[in-house]
Design a protein that fits this description.
The complex is a heterotrimer. Chain A is mostly helical. Chain A contains 6 helices and no strands. In chain A, helix 1 packs antiparallel against helix 2 and helix 2 runs antiparallel to helix 3. The longest helix of chain A is centred in the middle third of the chain and has 25 residues. The mean pLDDT of chain A is 85. By secondary structure, chain B is mostly helical. Chain B has one domain: Helix Hairpins, CATH 1.10.287. In chain B, helix 1 packs antiparallel against helix 2 and helix 2 packs antiparallel against helix 3. By secondary structure, chain C is mainly α. Chain C folds into 2 domains: 79 residues, no CATH class; 290 residues, no CATH class. In chain C, helix 5 runs parallel beside helix 12 and helix 8 runs antiparallel to helix 10. Chain C is globular, with a radius of gyration of 23 Å. The mean pLDDT of chain C is 86. The chains are: A mainly alpha, B mainly alpha, C mainly alpha. Chains in contact: A-B, A-C. Chains A and B meet through helix 1, helix 2, helix 3, helix 4 and helix 5 of A and helix 1, helix 2 and helix 3 of B.
Chain lengths: 160, 104, 395
Amino acid sequence: MNNAAFILVAILTLAAALAAATLRKLMHAALSFAAALVGLAAFFFLLGAEFVGLALVFIYIGAVAVLIVFTILLTRRDVGKDRGFNWAGVLIALAVFCGLTWSILKTQSLSIVAPHIRALTVKRIGEALMTGYVWPLQCVGLLLTAALIGALILVMEEKR
Amino acid sequence: MTPTLQAFVLVSGALFSIGLLAALSRRHAIFILIGIELMLAAANLNFIAFWHFAPQPHQPTGVMFAIFSIAISAAEAAIGLAMVIAVYRHYHTTNVDQLDQLKG
Amino acid sequence: MSKSIDQVFVNAKQWLLSWLAGSPDWVIQVASILINIFMLLAVFLTLFALISVLERKILARMQNRYGPNRVGPFGLFQPIADGIKMLIKEDIVPARADKIVHFLAPVLIAAVAILTLAVIPYGRNMTPFTIDGGILFFFAVGSATELAVFMAGWASNNKFSMLGAMRAIAQMFSYELPLIITVLPVVMVVGSLMPDRIVSAQAGYTFGLVPRWFVFTPWGGVAFILFFVSGLVESNRTPFDVPEGESEIVAGHMTEYSGFKYATFFMAEYIGMFAVSGLAATLFLGGWHAPARVLEIIPSYVWFFVKLSALLFVYIWLRATLPRMRIDQMMNFAWKFMLPMAFTCIIAAAVWHYAGRGLRGWLWSLFVIVIVYSALSILLDTRRKFAPRVYRFAE
């Protein structure tokens, strides 16, 4: 059962990601990107990290995907299609994929099966965030504030 | 039969290559950003997969890393898209091949 | 006796599952999930049909007229007539619309709305889907609504649709922040994201009389009002229905949808309303707890639906009474008033907890809220005086 779920989700995610990378129309690509992220969240659920999966759906699909479609809308003068497809990029990506697959299949220690896992509760994540990871938390907060202000400044109309 | 760690890392590698494909072979700035986001998502999957298969007792390190990575990639996507809009306003194009005014 | 009436649905489900006693584990799991889904859909689609006619009747009565009263006793079979009408309408898709996205938008929005219903506790032991981050699931899935609205607006290839969709998204995500931040005090005080735990934390009565619901604390009351208003906005209801204002932008992002697809959008909006009301009842009004010890014989799911109906009645009442807000008034209200008040609720909840949860905590948190509210009222005052009223009568 677990195996069937894994294969199904893997096919969905990879197909959606491939669609996002190769579709001609920009809007369709952005929406397949959102679908690939849903597949990825399903992976996280399978791995017992439910909080991260939900955070992924929340942040990526609720915010980043909406940002992307808004930007597509606002930069529409050259009509939705993408002109030109660089085949060198395809070759490089294929080469990287082959290299990664070869090295993964060669590594012996990776063929392990999972021990029985209890899912990580939100309480433990909260405790970790507030005790061991408090400095990264504050830094990420600062970073997000700086990003927010920076993004606003970048898009503000210049006063003539 | 449950999937092994190898299966998860293979999927993560495939997702990474697809993201690389999007980032390297498209000419529209937003496509490149989508590719970068896909690569980051693949790295997150890698982290969580290794966390899941780690020996007991479990440290939440992998999950923490993934959470911070998601937050940071959201910030970076926002800035990237703001830059795309700003560049579009100035040059009226989003084709990165035509943004070559600073070339030496 | 009352306990078995209380658990009648749980026992019925166990009885149904006992028919499959010999099957492998996953068959029982799948059957259990299917029974949950079926019950949820049956209850909420019936409630949707009922509310659509009750809303028209209540609106009508508030406007001093009868509502629909031809079809069936007191017009209660009106949804059947509406359903038949919607189903036999011609499905028009604009010629230059993006067909796939145009088709998927209502599907996505309805799916998302129904998914959010899964984590709400409807009675004792009656939560369809228990997950450790239940509240986060609700908001994560609910935030996909914005994408669906955008898909609908963009795929129609119509300027009104696009404009309506952009306004709807701007409104939705600016009110998503107060919606989520007002939930934070509750989660903080309870210490868990599971709706079941949140309901259990509101059990019991102070002095044996007043139930320990969070709405009776100062931060809870303010948070409840803010949550309720944000819920109004999220479901695009009057006074916040600029995205679907008929006199302004035709029907906004739903302009190019006819027949059953429009009914799907309509259904998604109402089910969103149910979900937000259900969550408000869970978080602030004590979920399925009874308001007094004597009334505990009445089953828990009855109490939940009583509270849900009360909140829905307030929704309909607001629709009948208030005019539509302008979009800039709405945004100002969200960012300048609701967001600071939502943050104050978090601080007030912390003050309540650390000053002891009794009378002293109550008074101190009330003090914090009153100070911030007065400061905001003074700071946000536009000092705009209205001209004296002039009455002109027909000669």
